[in-house]
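Cross-posted from the bioinformatics board.
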Amino acid sequence: MWNWFHKLSAPKSFFELSGKLLPWFGLLAMLTLAVGAVWGLAFAPPDYQQGNSARIMYVHVPASILAQSSYMMMASAALVFLVWRIKLADIALQCAAPIGASITLLALVTGAIWGKPTWGTWWVWDARLTSTLILFFLFVGVIALRSAMDNRDSAGRATAVLALVGVVNLPIIKYSVDWWFTLHQSSSFSLTAKPTMPAEMWIPLLIMVVGFYLFFFVAWMLRIRAEILHREIRTQWVRERVLSS
Amino acid sequence: MKFGKMKPQRRNRLMIAGLLVVSVGTAVSLALKALNENINLYYSPAQIVQGEAPRNTLIRAGGMVVANSVNRSTTDLQVSFVVSDMGASEVMINYVGILPDLFREGQGVIARGVLNDQNVFIAEEVLAKHDETYMPPEILQTLAESKAKAEKNGTSL
């Protein structure tokens, strides 16, 4: 088991395995996103108070969940890189940041678009919205810090420390609506209680969440593969691969 | 791969990383604890009634709109309503302007404005606070119908 991990963490074997898995993940992502979007936007019932504007949750909720999860994945890669100095973890960290930043921005923008008709404002500085904005800045900070340093090793270590420390923000985002008075509502889902919406709403929502995760993995793999090729450009296997294709 | 069997160098790095996260976490939670009052977006009716909210300065007040408390002026956009926190505390809010679509009796609102000396909140902006419940309109209808049926059966008995 451990050896298998070790072997996989070699850029070459990761490149080969991800190449085999990628088409399947891509297909699944497209399928779930298409089914979830059509179901959520066209067939799921509107909300009794918000009407059709509630449908933005089929994008906003998955984006917000994924924004936090992608940060967690990026921070895990940072920990692995800091402790075990595995090259692939550094690549994974670097490649997750731009996707995470885009997803967080999507969550913020869709939230604002929903907030205007529902709350009556695009933005308030409440704890949930502010901490999510900080999450966006953390992603942007990781990208900026990486590109600000020329030396790849020290850049890798510095960004890994920043990404790791930023984990502190995640519980704040999650519990902000419980710890403080906020305009943002508390979560409709929890592991212990029944969801506060009917199944014809949460099933398409769940499909969208799965679709967003799959999309993230596909985008992440694509970036990681490109970065592996870029870094290993002088090695024999990359040359053989490029020549043979 | 046991923790004790890890190479000392890696174990040290893991411990430093853990220490880093724990110490930053402690620092941030202490800072948030100190800022606690400022992070709350609004004052609850209970806080206002107990005099915890500052007077004559711009603050936010939030609560549930009490049923049958909304008074609209017939000549202008003046509206007044009472918010409560499901308890004994109630605060009167005066507002001139257009209320958000989701403003209903029994729903949460957050108003920005000034608390005057008569304990009346003069709002310049009212936001609707949506709760976490979502349901299709038909369910509300069936709920109302079954409630009406139950009431009817109750009177006929």
